[in-house]
Amino acid sequence: MDDDTDEDYEFSREIVQSYLEQAKSTFADMDQALSAKDLSKLSSLGHFLKGSSATIGVKKVQECCKHIQFLGKLHNMDGQGSVDEDEALKLIAKELKVGKEEYEKANEFLGFFYETDFTDQDAKEPSN
């Protein structure tokens, strides 16, 4: 990112931290929407997190969220054809599980890169 220097990645680290916090919150919202069987909300949240994940480059989370977005609209995971509500909810539960796993992997990798424990919501400085 243009505002970063070779040794100090403060600008991009703050963006990444914001993404990780946003993704964690969005996954919690998705869990609630799944419990409520709210397909419209799931589709909307999938769309939202898909875009954020694409911006940061977390492609596996982006892909899961794309599937959730389509399934929430009762489309197949590729956006073609259709599925019934029960099948959509079942597939969304699987995609949500994979998305969370991929989020954790990204969190770990990004924490290593930035030398920051992003699981600590108050972490602003690199760990030594």
Description:
The protein is an all-alpha fold and 128 residues long. The protein is built from four helices and no strands. Helix 2 (39-56) runs antiparallel to helix 3 (59-72) and helix 3 (59-72) runs antiparallel to helix 4 (85-114). The longest helix is centred in the C-terminal third of the chain and has 30 residues, at 85-114. The protein is elongated, with a radius of gyration of 16 Å. The chain starts with 9 loop residues before the first helix and ends in a 14-residue tail after the last helix.
Low-confidence stretches: 121-128
Average pLDDT level: 90
Q: Helix- and strand-based class? A: mainly alpha
Q: Which outline best applies?
A: elongated
- Count of DSSP-assigned helices: 4
**C-alpha Rg, in Å?**
16 Å
Number of distinct beta strands: 0
Distance between the termini: 23 Å
Order of SSEs:
HHHH
Major beta sheet summary: none
Q: Beta-sheet strand percentage? A: under 5%
Helix content: 55-70%
Oligomer: single chain
